[in-house]
Amino acid sequence: MQLTSPTKEIQMTLPEFNNEKLFRQALTHRSYVNENPSYREEDNERLEFIGDALLTFLSGEYLYQRHSEMGEDQMTRRRSALVDEKQLARFAIEIGLDIRMRLGKGAHREGGITNPNLLSSTFEAFIGAYYLDTQDMDKVRKFVRQMFDSVPENVVETRSTVDSKNRFQEWVQANVGTTPPKYVTVQAGGTPHAPEFLAKVCVADKEFGEGKGRSKKDAEKNAAEDALARLKKRGLI
C-alpha cells in the first residue's frame, strides 16, 4: 500500500530517550517476542494503549485551540482523520520508525515494515514510550503538534468526511443520547502474523452492529458500517 501523501515540508527527528529500554520496547512487535523465547522484555502493546489515549487527547486539544469556529461534530471528524491508521503510518515513516521496527521473520517477510496497521501501532507505542520516558506532557505535545502541522487541511477535510465510526457516533448523539458507542473487539482467527478480529458495537448495552477485519481498527470500522447499514435498512437514517 502506498503511504506517501502531500505533506508540508517539515524537518522531524526522533527525540532522545533517557531510558533506551522504553524506546526498544516501543519498536518491538509481539511477533519478535514470540520468535525469540530468550527475549525477556515486553512487546509494545501496552505502550500502544497509552499512546492511543495520548494522541486522541492531544489531537482534540490541537483542533479545539486552532479552530474556534468548529463545532463538536466537525472537530470529531477532523480528529479522526488526524489519528487514523493511514495517517499515523505516515507519521511513523516520516520519523524513520519503519526501518527501526523489531519484527519476527514471518511478519517481516509479509511486508511488515510497510503494513499500515503495524506502522500506526508502532507510532502509538512510540508516543506512549516518549511520555513515560520524559514524564513531560509539554514535550510530547510539542512533538505531536509538529506532526499534526504537517498534514494539509484539504487532506484532513477529505478523509474526515468518510469515517464510519464518527458518522455512527453522530447518529447516536442525535438520536440516543450522550453515551458514546462502545466497541468490544476480540481476535477471532487468522494466523499470528495475519490475525482476524471481530468487533461488536453497542450503545447502552444494545448491540447495533458487528464487523471483521485484519486489525482491531478495521474490525471496529466495519462494525460501525454494519450499524449504519442496519439503521438505513430500518429507515432511521
Main sheet, how many strands, which sense, barrel? 3 strands, antiparallel
Superfamily (CATH H level) name of the largest domain: Ribonuclease III domain
Order of helices and strands: HHHHHHHHHHEEEH
CATH topology name of the largest domain, in short, is Ribonuclease iii, N-terminal Endonuclease Domain, Chain A
Summarize the model shown.
Its cofactor is Mg(2+). The protein has 237 residues and is mostly helical. The chain is built from 11 helices and 3 strands, in the order ααααααααααβββα.
What does this structure look like?
The protein has 2 domains: 20-159, Ribonuclease III domain (Ribonuclease iii, N-terminal Endonuclease Domain, Chain A), CATH 1.10.1520.10; 162-234, Double Stranded RNA Binding Domain. It is built from 11 helices and 3 strands, in the order ααααααααααβββα. The protein has helices at 20-26, 30-35, 45-66, 72-82, 85-94, 105-109, 116-134, 137-149, 153-160, 164-175, 216-233; strands spanning 182-190, 195-203, 206-213. The chain has a 3-stranded antiparallel sheet. Helix 3 crosses helix 4 (72-82), helix 3 crosses helix 8 (137-149) and helix 5 (85-94) crosses helix 7 (116-134). The relative contact order is 0.14.
Keywords, separated by commas or semicolons:
nuclease; single chain; tRNA processing; Ribonuclease iii, N-terminal Endonuclease Domain, Chain A; mainly alpha; 237 residues; Double Stranded RNA Binding Domain; disordered N terminus; globular; magnesium
